[in-house]
Predict the structure of Aspartate-semialdehyde dehydrogenase.
Amino acid sequence: MTARDGKPTLAVVGATGAVGAVMLQILSQHADIWGEIRLIASPRSAGRKLAVRGEEVEVVALDEEALSGVDVAMFDVPDEIARQWAPVAAAKGAVVVDNSGAFRMDPDVPLVVPEVNPHAARVRPRGIIATPNCTTLSMIVTLGALHAEFGLRELFVSSYQAVSGAGRAGIDALRQQLSLVAGTELGTSPGDLRRAVGDDTGPFPEPVALNVVPWAGSLREDGWSSEEMKVRDESRKILGLPELPVAVTCVRVPVVTAHSLTVHARFEGEVTVDRAREIIATAPGVVLFDNPAAGEFPTPADVVGTDPTWVGRVRRALDDPTALELFVCGDNLRKGAALNTTQVAESVARDFGAS
Amino acid sequence: MTARDGKPTLAVVGATGAVGAVMLQILSQHADIWGEIRLIASPRSAGRKLAVRGEEVEVVALDEEALSGVDVAMFDVPDEIARQWAPVAAAKGAVVVDNSGAFRMDPDVPLVVPEVNPHAARVRPRGIIATPNCTTLSMIVTLGALHAEFGLRELFVSSYQAVSGAGRAGIDALRQQLSLVAGTELGTSPGDLRRAVGDDTGPFPEPVALNVVPWAGSLREDGWSSEEMKVRDESRKILGLPELPVAVTCVRVPVVTAHSLTVHARFEGEVTVDRAREIIATAPGVVLFDNPAAGEFPTPADVVGTDPTWVGRVRRALDDPTALELFVCGDNLRKGAALNTTQVAESVARDFGAS
């Protein structure tokens, strides 16, 4: 390793994006284990200055030189950029922790959630570790803990996904649309929202203000969306259950940040709510927030800006003693993206220290 | 019957509410089969004038006299008002079509959706016919058609419920909250929405603007909400499947009108998407709107103000050839309440004509 002062060099590739901003925030809050932190983005953003660890750092353009002398590189960039540049960084000796979809299902790339499968990070033939999609991450820590005890057998998920899952453009689109609908009677007659919002619906196929849109990502076979397939495929890989039956419907909602999901999970044998609640309450990275009598259940407004997954509405299916119903909620930019990537990068750095 | 000019007298009890307003709209659009249409509401609203069939009609207060000489009475009032006054109307000879929760599970009260179980309306020992909760109605016409062909065996539902399900107070709360959050950066830091909205969250336990709230109704046993139990119990009764396994999670979303639901439905044997789409496309009261390649899937913005249930995202479960995934969307004030109640009332009136 090329560490200065005995500390490894970290590159943040995609530092100027919505997730990049949260990465810098988290790096500034966590124990400082890094030597240099190099901020890298598209040539368009080069020269901008961003704050990390209380210092202004100038952003450099993504090129071969920028990736030289890096020990760990966290990537949050579009898939095609990751596909091109992550192998370059790895060839130059960096361990890449990639948050794009480019490598997640590559059998030579581990897909890592530190609370669920930390050891997978150590076997990385391509020098690349992938981190899951934000929707998968919103539930997988909770499911990992329940699976370890009960043995997961079937999974049905419906999502309530925040617009920031589509980056800054998603946030801008919702805010722009909200400014058009607030203070109006819109949302009560056919087509009124669509006319008010016009053709420019940002990264979403329909208006998202005062609406919900049952689509995320691109079209896959048999009518499934790419986001739905990611949740299925990634959950199977992380949990080590390649045959797990999974059905997912992904829906965008007018929330800025924090994804929510309803989960119906069937296990090997009978489960009890009491034991499920104990597991959730004691699992690392998970908070049990479940007392409807006191008005306690997680909502995005409670959860935004926090690290853990919040879990509420824990019920046993009335007609199946082997199944649980849950409502989970997590900040899609933190644990759903920047935090998980940072946790994995930090675990790699700790291994450097240990070796 | 006490019909004038050979036409029956209709009472609309709860005429000044959000659902009442839609009832008057629908009565003005449908073929005019009624003699007198009497508008009834709380004493507080008596004397107001509302338009129906192009005429202004004065609202009278709910009392014994108001219910005299009525052939059919449509009730949309709180449960306790229905519990008190529906039997009074029935005792005076009216057939009551009640949209409250007061009588739905009464074994002597049929629970009727004309497209699914029309004949049940004719057996009404108490003179009362109940109509289902708006969330049940958003999916049950579609499920009835699929059940008739495939035989339903298991049902998992997650809802995306509009604020108008909580009446005018729900709409007012969302609009008020939207005026506070539009044009701000709210929704991105912990607790900011809650501070901005304050303690008055209207009929909802949490802020609903820029948020989703996994709670609707009151607390029932084992952590279930009353709304979730309604969807389970009413679906079983309407479909005539008293043992059907059903699991539901109800979530409120910042949409003014039109409930959406994700549905995972398992059937007796293997299903095909082609046949499912044929059934949906030809079922009365249902529209198939399902071509993701062309950006076609139902959203509340498409569906508000229309009569049918719109169905999209029709997929067969990848890991279970007997299960279908659907996204359904319906106007909770129309088919979800006013329209279904009016359809039932009209079918009763037609029976008068036939007898």
